[in-house]
Amino acid sequence: MSKIGYVRVSTRDQNLNSQIDVLNEYGCDRIFFEKVSGRK
């Protein structure tokens, strides 16, 4: 069974790397991410 991770930040200035690092340590095979504002 593969592990899938999801990373999201709400501004383009925020960094995804710390969240991605945690998911990689957890052993995720695929990681999806997005940078989206909650305002829109």
List the helices and strands and how they pair.
Layout: E1 4-9, H1 17-26, E2 30-35
Parallel strand pairs: 1-2
Would you kindly provide a written description of the structure presented here, covering whatever features stand out?
The protein has one domain (4-35). The protein has 1 helix and 2 strands; from the N terminus they run βαβ. It has one helix at residues 17-26, and strands at 4-9, 30-35. A two-stranded parallel sheet has the order 1-2. The relative contact order is 0.39. The model has no long low-confidence stretch (mean pLDDT 90).
Average pLDDT number: 90
Radius of gyration over C-alpha positions, nearest whole angstrom: 11 Å
Strand content: 25-35%
Number of helices: 1
The parts where pLDDT drops under 50 for at least 5 residues are: none
Can you tell me the number of structural domains?
1
Describe this protein with a few key phrases.
40 residues, alpha+beta, 1 helix
Could you give a quick summary of the protein structure above?
The protein has one helix spanning 17-26; strands at 4-9, 30-35. The protein is α+β, with helices and mostly antiparallel strands and 40 residues long.
